């Protein structure tokens, strides 16, 4: 009972902390963005006024025109002169869209217009999202050995203590991932995209790899883009591999936290232990036997949720 | 492993009952674990690449379907808006095309920034007031990321990155905790129901299946159908659009073409004040529910595959043990039998010596051997009945005993049947 009470207490603590975190974020965003928004609104007003003053257009018809343009633009249909050639739904772009759907990034720069399209997206997403998660988890499990277990073993053999070995390795892995999947692609994007700065590139990479996918920056949507299909496919590949690396990082971090006793302290589900996964992250099996209770279920990165008690229900 | 001395017939003859197994632990020939591991490692690669190709195929199929569905719509939209533009230009001849393009470009980028130029600015609510910023922070942390609002200043973007870096794991912990609690509650309920139903002699798998289905149905009803109806009523979307929004949000895809609470400004602010936090709370519980369903399905697959592996492994172990037992019994019987044969030959030899010494006649081997052979054959036939595995064929003509061609006992002269031959018999496996 004591542990049950403790877990409830921890949960309420988490919820409270989460709410406070959100409020804090809200305050900061509000204070940063609001002045800029006001200024932009003001600029728009002046622009409209100027336009109306110069021409014979009356406000009502301009309003109507603008509303229609904006409605079309929301679906990615632009009224500008040089955008008539490229479609948002040719094969490569549709594949890009399907990819954003299935990896749950969901930029939103193009969204299904027709009712059938919407219905199909629902079904497609419901099937595709678990599928993709399965693939990513399986790939991460395969990658664990060469990228995590072997280097940690190496570090250990060179005389390090197990815990510090895992910590050092995790930091190295983090550095590597940030370099290869955040900074390098950001530089490439800032070169390839006309209006992006390096910071914009970093912002885009981060927002995409965390599957947030706000959609304010999407590569390959500029009208004059050369080799657009190739570009979009390579961005897709980058997203997929990057997502895999993020999962790997999270998994490694989870195992490390297990090792350092964090998960037990916070009463969170332990790292999954499958038959292939039985090899602990450190070679020292003796002292680490206790920290891998084999009846706890997995905590999936970015969508964790496990019911260890469900496993303990006697299986038929 | 105290195996009796096989080479000592006398001591072995005392152990008349064949032992089932020579060792206490079951004999497992090659550890199934190793086989399983190597086999699963090899299969795992295959499985992973198979699933990967399936995913790529799935993407391609989706791409073609989307293209087929959406491209016609897009073209018609394009034509419509171009016609609008031309109409506008024709109607208002003092506007030239480039000025209009300029205006449109600026308007579009302003809308991207969240500023809607239509209408006048006096009664428009800001997109960055506290409740909307709260909502935005929520969409960032849950990785939904609608995108109808996004930061446009450099400072805002940098802060967004740092904020997400810390917030996403935090939300992950929260989700794990909520999912845990949900799962525990559900698991306890299931256990109670199982206790009740087990009296009715229904198999546990059936109970589990039924209960999972009930869980999924119940959860869908409360967390998907009900909010869809509410959204349809409040936001004025169609049924399909509401369901579309619910699914896209709860799977954290979050396109942003439909966002709850976007239609701001004209509605009464009081209803909107608690509307957005309630929506956020619904997202939290809905995400936990989705995650719980997914992990439950994953658990099932893991349990099923583990059970299958176990059962297969157990079966293999059983089969191996059975084989080992049978062969041990077989060896034991062969040994006992050869000892028997040796005994009988000794007796026959001594009888023969007696007879020959009494008669003093050099009787022919075959005729003299016939009674001995006959007794021998009678004995051996008895043995044959009780040991069906042994196929002993006695050919009276050649005077040879053959069993499967591997045991060849020359029955002509009992003098040959000495200890060395017994040893040879033993060593013949």
Structural summary, described in words:
The complex is a heterodimer of chains A (316) and B (429). Chain A starts with a helix and ends with a helix. Mean pLDDT of chain A is 73; it is low at 273-281 and 283-316. With 316 residues, chain A is mainly alpha-helical. Chain A is globular, with a radius of gyration of 25 Å. Chain A has helices spanning 2-54, 59-74, 91-102, 115-157, 162-192, 198-209, 228-259, 262-265, 285-288, 308-312. By secondary structure, chain B is an all-alpha fold. Helix content of chain B is 71%, strand content 3%. Chain B has helices at 9-14, 32-91, 97-112, 130-141, 154-197, 204-235, 239-250, 269-359, 365-386, 419-427, and strands at 392-395, 400-403, 407-410. A three-stranded antiparallel beta sheet of chain B has the order 1-2-3, with helices on one face. In chain B, helix 4 runs parallel beside helix 8 (269-359), helix 5 packs across helix 6 (204-235) and helix 6 (204-235) crosses helix 7 (239-250). Chain B is elongated and about 150 Å long. The model of chain B is unreliable at 1-43, 264-270, 365-369, 380-418 and 421-426 (pLDDT under 50). Classes of the chains: A mainly alpha (316), B mainly alpha (429). Chains A and B meet through helix 1, helix 2, helix 3, helix 4 and helix 6 of A and helix 2, helix 3, helix 4, helix 5 and helix 6 of B.
